[in-house]
Amino acid sequence: xxxxxxxxxxxxxxxxxxxxxxxxxxxxxxxxxxxxxxxxxxxxxxxxxxxxxxxxxxxxxxxxxxxxxxxxxxxxxxxxxxxxxxxxxxxxxxxxxxxxxxxxxxxxxxxxxxxxxxxxxxxxxxxxxxxxxxxxxxxxxxxxxxxxxxxxxxxxxxxxxxxxxxxxxxxxxxxxxxxxxxxxxxxxxxxxxxxxxxxxxxxxxxxxxxxxxxxxxxxxxxxxxxxxxxxxxxxxxxxxxxxxxxxxxxxxxxxxxxxxxxxxxxxxxxxxxxxxxxxxxxxxxxxxxxxxxxxxxxxxxxxxxxxxxxxxxxxxxxxxxxxxxxxxxxxxxxxxxxxxxxxxxxxxxxxxxxxxxxxxxxxxxxxxxxxxxxxxxxxxxxxxxxxxxxxxxxx
Amino acid sequence: xxxxxxxxxxxxxxxxxxxxxxxxxxxxxxxxxxxxxxxxxxxxxxxxxxxxxxxxxxxxxxxxxxxxxxxxxxxxxxxxxxxxxxxxxxxxxxxxxxxxxxxxxxxxxxxxxxxxxxxxxxxxxxxxxxxxxxxxxxxxxxxxxxxxxxxxxxxxxxxxxxxxxxxxxxxxxxxxxxxxxxxxxxxxxxxxxxxxxxxxxxxxxxxxxxxxxxxxxxxxxxxxxxxxxxxxxxxxxxxxxxxx
Lengths: 395, 244
Known about the structure:
The complex is a heterodimer of chains A (395) and B (244).
Chain A (H helix, E strand, L loop, with lengths): L2 H14 L1 H40 L3 E10 L1 H8 L4 E16 L2 E9 L5 H5 L4 H4 E4 L7 E4 L1 H4 L14 E6 L5 E11 L15 E4 L1 H8 L5 E8 L5 H11 L4 E4 L1 H44 L1 H9 L4 H33 L2 E3 L3 E3 L5 H27 L3 H6 L2
Parallel strand pairs in A: 3-8, 5-7
Antiparallel strand pairs in A: 1-9, 1-10, 2-3, 2-6, 2-9, 4-7, 5-8, 6-7, 11-12
Chain B lengths: L6 E12 L2 E13 L4 E5 L6 H8 L7 E6 L2 E2 L6 H10 L1 E4 L11 H6 L9 H14 L15 H13 L5 E5 L7 H17 L3 E5 L11 E6 L2 E7 L3 H10 L1
Parallel strand pairs in B: 3-8, 3-9, 6-7, 7-8
Antiparallel strand pairs in B: 1-2, 1-4, 4-5, 9-10
Helix pairs in contact in B: 4-5, 5-6
């Protein structure tokens, strides 16, 4: 007996019981939509979250803060640790700026421009500079979005080439005038390491240690590693050489925690939506049991004319496979349409759309087939083992 | 196996046990059937006729005894695949209630036994049409069972039984549900199959009028063979029944 023959006999039987077949297919379809979208949303959430965190917190970095700050010598120590790719320091000072609507507080950040993208969580410096240049030598600075654009009206209040005077608080309080070389794009106000890029002024570290403070001490040391797997070992090494009172923070651990959380969330969503598959499997079990009873005489006829028990078993199992396959394909098609047109707004400007990866597609097809074949196996086996004489006598 | 002992039944018993109740359906039945013979099994209800037919056809197992059909010792076959192949290739069943599958057309019903053999669809169709032609129903190939009379349905069932060229046809009350005219048509088909194609036929019947189509009649009663009648002894057989 060829597979084609099994398939055509099973299909004919399904066609005869249209109502129950369509009901079962709809059940599988709904279950597949729920499962694939739950997994897809979880996947998309994980992708976005991890990408955001990695970009924002420099996933391959270790942040060292606190204590009395870090000198170039400290940075050099960190740079000599095995597995460290780069080290850079960031100095920060709170300043006040006179705006049209009154004085506002801003953060003055001294950082080498090439590290700005990683520090604020953008792909490249070009993505951050909306107008002007990133060349922040001397007293040339880049001002954050909220400082050159009115946050309420969106109108431009400062421009490239203009000067901006800031008041530095603290022991060496003074007023310093910078000139604007670049205007920063909006970063959504997302704070990287406590700084809001939209409310910051980025300047050259050498100028910072000339005009703001004479002490060449960084508030933050960022250690970039070659391999995130080495982070634990490098943290131990940093702890050994860092000044007393330093606090070490690694985003890798946090990202891992978030990743575990998102994976757990995805698993829970999948489990909840799997209830649908379980209900469908019960439906298939029930439907097959009724079918076996209704077709007892037919099974007897088939056995009398030479069908083996194995043939009968396969004919019934194929019915379950057909129901699952048609339901899965229909459900996946609907899921794909939904995932393209329906999204959940997240992080303000972003929209979360279900990410139906090949693994999710595979699971959404294989899970209903496996569970329904399992559910159909018991009534099918009963059909296959029917005594032909008793089956023919059945009324 | 000789042609004289094409079907060999030796001391066949069938005992049903349900809790403490023991019922003996067959009690040591023995007889032989020659190749190409048309044999009828007669007897009252409950005499074990259908049970015997089911045992010969490999649908049921005897509790004791030996059955051999065309050289195959079917009482020694326990494998489902081998027994199924025996039913498929050697035997053609015809039942009183036709047992056609309602969703399939006459042609599809006749094709059914060819599917387990792996016969390709085009060849299947050709063979099924030929079988329908033998029973005079080639014009009804695409009719469904509910669109046909009882006699036509039984002829489709016969076509299904002969489509795979079986060596033996086992017919259990094939005319039991038909009027006399349809019964005659069916018996003519059996006669044609027996005389022209040389198919061995064992038919269970209550109908005394049908014995004239048969070469021999095996009379069963209470699970035992009472007598085996040759054609020249049919008058005696008829008298026996008329007296009763």
